[in-house]
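We now fix the convention by which a protein and its fold are recorded. The integers have meaning only within a learned vocabulary of local backbone shapes. A complete example follows; check for yourself that the lines match position by position.
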Amino acid sequence: MSRPKLQDVAARAGVSVTTVSRVLNNRGYLSDDIKKRVDDAVAELGYRPNEIARSLIGQRSTLVGLIVPTVADPFFGELASHAEGALAERGYKMLLCDCHDTPEREEKYLDLLQGNRVDGIISSTHNRDVAGYGRADLPIVAIDRRLGDGIPTVHSDNRTGGVLATEHLIARGSRAPVHLTATDHPGNQRAAAYRERMAAHGLEARVMAYGYDTSLDERRAVIETWLTVNPCDGVFASDDLTALMALEWARKTGRRVPDDLRIVGYDGSAALQLAVPGLTTVRQPIERMARRAVDLLLERMADATADVAAQDPLPVALRHGWTS
């Protein structure tokens, strides 16, 4: 059976093709009776507008791409959910791209989104070798990552979060807490804050970076090996999944939490709070971050030449639990 066309809808509703187009695009005044006849015909025939053709005519697809490192991490799953909701409220649809933490796949998704005429892109990945953003010809907003000049970044107060986590461990008695993170570089404010506070207390800072392109199983193995050969009495993890891996390592090795090992995570997604309500973690305002990114992107889509205003970091908070 062939796909119904605009002409089929017009014939079923007893109106012109132009009238059907006006109803579908909500243009001009039309009586309620005509709107109902067209809507009924659309429903009966199962007609679906050709979105690509409509975008070619209107130079607007109402599509926004969101690129994330992995939806397996509850933080990015929740971020995507809030971004999709904020976009839907404004009449946009979202294309979700999971780059599996690899720069090659991120480059391919960036090209794919531009080739499919999305109106804008939100990127929340952390690969550092993706050159495509500098060549992009459409509005882009980053979340918790600097992509380059002219691209605004939405982020929470990572430095304060690092201070809260480190000081909390030290206040609870840790004298040899370690920091587990994906990558260790000058722009990592959580790691920088950890080092600063450790130095202020005269303690040795130890940072272990497992790499963004490491699978969950590989990350678990690396972390368990590292913790086994590097004695510590506290763990500041850069995300909650890593904190749970440290918690599992403690269980396997017979260490009591928090007596023998204190653990603080980072992110505070709703899913992790529900699954492990006792996890001490630094909570990011995930919904506010997603909504601010959407607002910024739509502003840039409305005026691509607009100046990029500096974005103040959103506040974080430490959520206390039994793991520290």
About this structure: The radius of gyration is 25 Å. The chain has three domains: 6-49, 59-155+286-312, 158-283. Residues 286-302 form the longest helix (17 residues).
